């Protein structure tokens, strides 16, 4: 029953779980079956009288992608199209293998669409026990499906080199703003109307503020009956347009990265909002705050035990190893520090804030023009030589281990420390 209630809440394409989506992409990528799906979408759009057409340029653009099916689903999902709509189109393609993956996410009355699949007969006497599929035409079925709220069955034609979904544009409130660039966010992460976040935070009530920084303010909120942390990317001062644009660019980069890199030790991004007065990112709420706050015993929290510190250190290491090894090129976080390690209700660590993350070289370092990060967590070699590699994250992780072991912050100008080795134990004490 628990599984049923969970799948009942999954309605839209962008909500499709990672495993089912991955398997569906594998199936439809074979023999370019996604192209037939695109054609079915176009025919359906014409049938419903929408203006959307899926032209040759769109197909050519998608062919260049490593995972064209995923890109197709992403574009379609941006407009809140449902898994049921996809299920029906696959039935018209008689692609029953892929329908099996979606069956648990559609109402039972529609399962008969998949039950018309051709029977499979095993010829026991045949060599290698090969399966002979007896194809028969699917019976015509008239099933009315309520269309989604969108007027389009796909994002606008890719006749332009790189189209920008309307939901991904930074609003200008009707005024010409030369400082507000257009951003693209082609992800499977859903876009949320700004007014929903206003309701989620009770009109951005100051009581719900979790923290503040150079980027803006983070609020606690309840969205879709889920506890979330909402980061508002606010412009500071009248002369900070360039800084604000940089913050927006970093936020869009973070959206794309968190869409592609999902791991139990990486902070989940639930949604984003770029259509309101202030751009926002919506994360899973980490109820134990940052590692920095926990080590400083902020909010009168209890000190972490050695076992808890060990598990936190191990979790951070697992997350970093994933980032550095999962792709063809390593992803370098660039700002590993205790303030960017968030702890969930079970004190499991999650690496957050990917605004400075960059792809590195597979086996070597690369020269960068600008140095980003937090000074006490960066090695001198990087500060002087500007050579970026995964070693930067490794060094920063070492500083975090120092903080875990001592309970001291990485840098405090009011503190002068000495240390001594006593009984094989490294002891730190304040110098008078």
UniProtKB/TrEMBL annotation:
<dbReference type="InterPro" id="IPR051824">
    <property type="entry name" value="LRR_Rcpt-Like_S/T_Kinase"/>
</dbReference>
<comment type="similarity">
    <text>Belongs to the protein kinase superfamily. TKL Ser/Thr protein kinase family. Pelle subfamily.</text>
</comment>
<dbReference type="InterPro" id="IPR000719">
    <property type="entry name" value="Prot_kinase_dom"/>
</dbReference>
<protein>
    <recommendedName>
        <fullName>non-specific serine/threonine protein kinase</fullName>
        <ecNumber>2.7.11.1</ecNumber>
    </recommendedName>
</protein>
<dbReference type="InterPro" id="IPR011009">
    <property type="entry name" value="Kinase-like_dom_sf"/>
</dbReference>
<dbReference type="InterPro" id="IPR011029">
    <property type="entry name" value="DEATH-like_dom_sf"/>
</dbReference>
<feature type="domain" description="Protein kinase">
    <location>
        <begin position="204"/>
        <end position="432"/>
    </location>
</feature>
<keyword id="KW-0808">Transferase</keyword>
<keyword id="KW-0547">Nucleotide-binding</keyword>
<dbReference type="InterPro" id="IPR037924">
    <property type="entry name" value="Pelle_death"/>
</dbReference>
<keyword id="KW-0418">Kinase</keyword>
<dbReference type="Pfam" id="PF00069">
    <property type="entry name" value="Pkinase"/>
</dbReference>
<keyword id="KW-0067">ATP-binding</keyword>
<keyword id="KW-0723">Serine/threonine-protein kinase</keyword>
<feature type="binding site">
    <location>
        <position position="231"/>
    </location>
    <ligand>
        <name>ATP</name>
    </ligand>
</feature>
<dbReference type="GO" id="GO:0005524">
    <property type="term" value="F:ATP binding"/>
</dbReference>
<dbReference type="GO" id="GO:0004674">
    <property type="term" value="F:protein serine/threonine kinase activity"/>
</dbReference>
<dbReference type="InterPro" id="IPR017441">
    <property type="entry name" value="Protein_kinase_ATP_BS"/>
</dbReference>
<dbReference type="InterPro" id="IPR008271">
    <property type="entry name" value="Ser/Thr_kinase_AS"/>
</dbReference>
């Amino acid at each position: 029953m628990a599984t049923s209630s969970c799948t009942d809440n999954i309605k839209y394409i962008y909500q499709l779980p990672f495993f089912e989506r991955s398997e569906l992409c594998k199936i439809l990528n074979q023999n370019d079956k996604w192209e037939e799906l695109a054609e079915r979408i176009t025919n359906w759009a014409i049938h419903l009288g929408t203006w959307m057409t899926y032209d040759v340029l769109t197909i050519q653009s998608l062919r260049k992608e490593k995972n064209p099916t995923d890109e197709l689903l992403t574009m379609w999902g941006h407009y809140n199209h449902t898994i049921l709509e996809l299920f029906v189109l696959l039935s018209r393609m008689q692609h029953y293998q892929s329908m099996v993956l979606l069956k648990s996410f559609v109402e039972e009355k529609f399962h008969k669409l998949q039950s018309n699949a051709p029977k499979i007969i095993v010829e026991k006497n045949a060599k290698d026990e090969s399966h002979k599929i007896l194809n028969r035409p699917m019976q015509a079925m008239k099933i009315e499906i309520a269309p989604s709220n969108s007027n389009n069955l796909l994002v606008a034609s890719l006749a332009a080199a790189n189209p920008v979904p309307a939901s991904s544009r930074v609003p200008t409130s009707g005024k010409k703003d030369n400082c507000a660039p257009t951003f693209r966010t082609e992800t499977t992460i859903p876009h949320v109307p700004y007014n929903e976040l206003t309701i989620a935070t009770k009109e951005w009530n100051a009581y719900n503020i979790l923290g503040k920084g150079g980027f803006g303010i983070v609020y606690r909120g309840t969205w879709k009956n889920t506890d979330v942390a909402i980061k508002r990317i606010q412009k500071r001062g009248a002369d900070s347009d360039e800084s604000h644009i940089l913050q927006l660019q970093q936020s869009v980069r973070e959206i794309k990265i968190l869409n592609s890199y999902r791991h139990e030790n990486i902070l989940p991004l639930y949604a984003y909002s770029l259509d309101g007065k202030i751009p926002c990112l919506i994360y899973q709420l980490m109820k134990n705050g940052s590692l920095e706050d926990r080590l400083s015993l902020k909010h009168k929290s209890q000190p972490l035990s050695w076992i808890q510190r060990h598990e936190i250190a191990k979790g951070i290491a697992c997350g970093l190893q994933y980032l550095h090894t999962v792709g063809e090129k390593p992803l370098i976080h660039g700002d590993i520090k205790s303030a960017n390690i968030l702890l969930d209700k079970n004190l499991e660590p999650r690496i957050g804030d990917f605004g400075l993350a960059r792809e590195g070289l597979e086996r070597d370092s690369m020269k960068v023009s600008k140095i980003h990060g937090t000074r006490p967590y960066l090695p001198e070699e990087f500060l002087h030589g500007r050579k970026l590699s995964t070693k930067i994250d490794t060094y920063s992780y070492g500083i975090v281990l120092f903080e875990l072991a001592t309970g001291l912050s990485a840098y405090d100008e009011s503190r002068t420390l000495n240390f001594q080795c006593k009984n094989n134990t490294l002891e730190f004490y304040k110098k008078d």
